[in-house]
Each structure stands twice: as C-alpha cells, then as structure tokens.
Amino acid sequence: MSMNASADSYPAQHFDALAEVAKTLGHAHRLVLLEHVAQGERAVERLAELSGLSVANTSQHLQHLRRAGFVQTRRDGKRVLYRLGTGPVAQLLAALRGYAEHQRAEIKEIIADSIHQRDRLDGVSVDELLGLLDSGSVVLLDVRPAEEFALGHLPGAVNIPPEQLEGRLADLPADANIVAYCRGPYCVLSSDAVAALQARGLRARRLDVGFPEWKAAGLRVEAA
C-alpha cells in the first residue's frame, strides 16, 4: 500500500475533529482552569479567583471547554458548578505536561529543580500504594490546600498543607510509613513535604501521581 493510499484511509473529518480539540486547548487560561477543575467541582467565581481572571473571562473560557466536552456543569441553587467531563481529560492533561517537558526547554528549566528532587526521593507507585492500603501499614498525607482536600482526597488521608507541617508533626505517628501526594506528578508540594519529613527522621515517600490521576483511574476517593 502506498503512503498516499494509507493517508487517504483517514477521513478528513477525523483530522478536523482533532484540530478542533487542539484549538480548544490552545489557550493557557483554559489549561489553568482545567487544572483547577481537576482538583474538584467548583463555581465560576472561585475558578476566577484561583486563576486570576475576571469572572466574565473565566466564564467565556469555561463555555469553550464545556462545548468541547472537557468540563460539565450542574446547578446548585443560583450557582453553576464545573467539573471535569466524562472523557479521559486528566490523562490528556498529563500527556500534554509530559510532551511539554520533553519538547520545550523553557518548561524543563522551570520544573528542573522539582524533577531532580523528585528523582532523589523514593517514589511509590499506585499499585504499591494499593497494597499498602490493604495491609493498613501506611499513613496518607495530602499536602494540598484544605479547600482542595475537602473537594476530594484519597481514602483516609490526613490533610496537612506545607505551611502547617512543622506545627503538626505530632499528627503523624513517629513509626508510620508516610506517603505524601498533592496535585499531580510535577507538584512540588509533596516532594518538599517528604524531604522535610525525612530530615526529621520520619519514614516518608511521595506518590508518583496526584489526586487527579488517582481519581481518573477510577480508584476510590472520599470527600469532606
């Protein structure tokens, strides 16, 4: 089969649809909003505050994302709440981050320190963590802000944001196996927390993924 014949086997509409998806995601503000929505369901006003955009601008970008299926909405009284769409949105965001890390020197420089620190720390895979949870031999430490923890977290996790860690070490058993996690694989909060805990003699490791990836895999989550 010739190369032309192979290319002709794909309908033009297939590439039109892919281009439309790429066009929808081709704005930094929309990617920022998706990252925030991936942490849990939020109203447009809160998303505007988190992203540093006006409510009108935030609403406009969210409508583009909704039409493309990246987010869904539901009404709660007078508020409209946004959550991720039903497709593999979290996986797509992870793939974009991975490609950007591979391809763009600027992004590599931004995350270089966190990657080097992460690589020096002993990571925990999802499969290993599931085994530890079954055996009851692990304490899960969620270092995200309390608001994000309330929207959803791993089962039985303890929420201690980084700025509270020093004052709440007593909340973590001295003989515990601690696994820390945060917003995603490149979130430095968990790496910083693990380094701080290890410096104090505690057994701490970081989860290889974050809450959005855990949830996207269909694993059990809890909410406050």
UniProtKB/TrEMBL annotation:
The keyword Transcription applies. It comes from the Bacteria. Residues 134-223 form the Rhodanese domain. It holds the Pfam family HTH_5. Keywords: DNA-binding, Transcription, Transcription regulation. Residues 10-104 form the HTH arsR-type domain. The keyword Cytoplasm does not apply. GO terms for molecular function: DNA binding; DNA-binding transcription factor activity; thiosulfate-cyanide sulfurtransferase activity. PROSITE patterns: HTH_ARSR_2 (PS50987), RHODANESE_1 (PS00380), RHODANESE_3 (PS50206). InterPro entries: ArsR-like_HTH, HTH_ArsR_DNA-bd_dom, Metal_resp_trans_reg, Rhodanese-like_dom, Rhodanese-like_dom_sf, Thiosulphate_STrfase_CS, WH-like_DNA-bd_sf, WH_DNA-bd_sf. NCBIfam families: HTH_metalloreg. This is HTH-type transcriptional regulator KmtR. It comes from Achromobacter agilis. The gene is kmtR.
